[in-house]
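During the second half of the funding period, the structural biology subgroup turned its attention to how the target accommodates small molecules. The most pressing case was iron/sulfur cluster, which had performed well in the primary screen but for which no bound structure existed. We therefore specified the complex as follows and requested a full 3D prediction, including the ligand pose.
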Amino acid sequence: MNIPANFDLPPHARKALKGILSAPDLNVSLYYTAALQYATAMDLLAQEIPAIAFPLPGDALPIRRAAALALTAYVLAEQVDTLLFGAPQRRGHHCRIGCAFCCWLPVDVLAHEAITIAAFLSGTLAPAKMEKITQRVTALDERLAAMSSVECIRAQVPCPLLDLEDMTCRIYTVRPHACRQYASFDRDACERALGDPDAAVPTDILLQLVHDRVTMGIAVALYALGIDYHTLDIVSALRIALTEPDAAERWLAGEDVFAAARRSARERGDVDPSERDLEDLQSLFREILAAG
Ligand code: SF4
């Protein structure tokens, strides 16, 4: 991929983007695509989407500014990850390899994250192991399907992607933002929370904020492109990505292939989930714009 000529970025962002483009990684390509789509989305919002009609500051948000926002979010996310995993003592995180108390919490993903995880698994596991993990994900999805999010938290079920022998994530390099954003300042509090879902755990709010922004940018871009942008339950979404033929292509084509995995649909029952999520999205837009 090349940087389009009209993709007007400051020099440091352009340099970062060139690095991103040269990395042979699906997620990285997605972030680049997200940056471009986010820019397009913001431009569309300013001009064409009456459903999200609220005052924009001054002129319509320039496309390059929106793109730079998304790119900055990506670069920030990478920097925060380096801070976390390159020098954990600097920020005081207690997170270490083999410590996985948080992997008993439900995880939210966007569709592309489930698709990426499924692709990673099929690219790294032998067919027999792939079959085994698909069966495990399917069984767990059936068990959790009748539960609300609160009930899922209280059930304290380990993520099906956690290797229970050494407590490591099988898909660590492509773990979703919900996992990347969770860093604890107190390992003992995490251990307590595994037995008591009401126990408080001091977590890194900055890290959460950064990953939230990246996720938001991607959701905004997907919304504008008419592609499903809803928050999904990782188990249910992964089941779909693993078992539905051509799930990725169909999702990209605008098909509602991940509808059954919408966490909001499970939780909100009588509210049309698409309307409710649109409200959430609108308030996120307002936040972005208020932050300048
Ligand atoms: S995806 Fe990996 S990091 Fe996230 S909850 Fe599952 S095992 Fe843990």
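Two results from this model are relevant to the next phase. The mean pLDDT is 70. Strands lie at 108-109, 162-163, 168-169, 232-233.
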